[in-house]
Write a structure and sequence with these properties.
The protein is α/β, with parallel strands linked by helices. Helices cover 39% and strands 16% of the residues. The longest helix is centred in the first third of the chain and has 20 residues, at 2-21.
């Protein structure tokens, strides 16, 4: 009888696990569901330019690396080439991230700006790792389409500067069937965003950026609160500790939205002591990250994904259900 009961319990567990596994079609869909759920205890980890410590930023291997780590969102940057192709590059030029000066040596009139180079010219360039002296010959700058083909159904994507190329980004996400897995952020007014989205039957996710200690940011934040418009989440930025961050988090939670913070640089999260590097040198990363969870933050953009994911997992706050 005991063995029969154990077998029955095991069968029930298998059925239950099977239901949970089939609840979402893929991992990116499960992550997107967490973005849409303001009451979830799950903390989403967004990786700034991918794993740039080990691979060139915004490269396919940098994206693959953070997927392997178990990250939820990869942040990438886009610019448009001279022949109207969106490629992954943070800067408006390619001097910092590629071997442009080597490839186009002897052509002093050749512009290093992404907008002045064709895709074919950009594909001649090799990518540099951060703080490394030599480029990786086999790595080339990916197009947005190539990047989204890599991330499809595996991880959600935040396209930085995506608002500047909204229609072009949307055309690619629709073609690949990943529109619901892609997030755009911006500082535009509620009316501007609504007008843009009204032009399309299907839109990418959108999140306002509110720099709460600056006049324009505070005005945008208050417009959402005053008009009762509830976004999926707010990206909250602040430069000094005066209680404004805590007050904003409380208002956002009461409104029924989520809070995204950036721990990549002190200037985005209250100054020294609240960023990833501070967490890295601390005896306990929770001495830094803990306050964000205490204030209801459930989306964190980081430059140290392994550290943050490891700490969140120990806290039981990074397990998809």
């Amino acid at each position: 009888m005991r063995n029969l009961l154990l077998f029955a319990a095991g069968l029930l567990c298998l059925v239950s696990c099977g239901r949970n596994a089939s609840r979402y079609a893929n991992r990116a869909e499960a992550i997107a569901a967490q973005i849409h759920n303001p009451s979830s205890e799950y903390v989403l980890v967004a990786c700034h330019r991918g794993d740039w410590r080990n691979w060139p930023e915004n490269s396919i291997p940098a994206i693959e690396s953070v997927i392997e780590m178990g990250a939820d969102i990869v942040e990438i940057d886009v610019h448009m080439t001279a022949d109207s192709v969106l490629v992954l590059c943070h800067d408006s030029d390619v001097l910092r991230t590629t071997n442009f000066n080597i490839v186009f040596k002897g052509q002093p009139d050749k512009s290093p700006k992404v907008s002045d180079l064709t895709l074919a010219e950009i594909k001649q360039l090799s990518l540099y790792r951060m703080h490394r002296a030599t480029p990786i010959d086999t790595l080339r700058m990916p197009t947005l389409k190539e990047a989204l083909q890599c991330t499809k159904d595996r991880i959600c994507v935040n396209i930085d500067k995506g608002w500047n190329y909204y229609e072009q980004c949307l055309a690619i996400t629709e073609e690949l069937g990943v529109t619901d897995q892609v997030l755009i952020k911006g500082k535009k007014s509620i009316e501007t965003v609504a007008a843009k989205e009204a032009l399309h039957p299907h839109n990418m996710l959108y999140m306002p950026i509110v720099d709460i200690q600056k006049e324009k940011g505070a005005k945008l934040f208050n417009s959402y609160l005053d008009k009762g418009v509830v976004p999926l989440a707010y990206e909250v930025c602040w430069q000094k500790e005066d209680g404004a961050f805590e007050q904003a988090c409380e208002k956002i939670r009461k409104q029924g939205s989520k809070v995204w913070v950036n721990t990549i640089w002190p200037s985005l999260c209250g100054g020294n002591g609240g960023d990833d590097d501070a967490a890295y040198i601390a005896k306990d990363p929770g001495d830094v990250y803990g306050r964000y969870l205490d204030n209801g933050v459930s989306m964190i953009q980081t430059d140290r994904p392994e550290l943050l994911i490891g700490w969140l997992s120990k806290k039981g706050r990074h397990t998809l259900k």
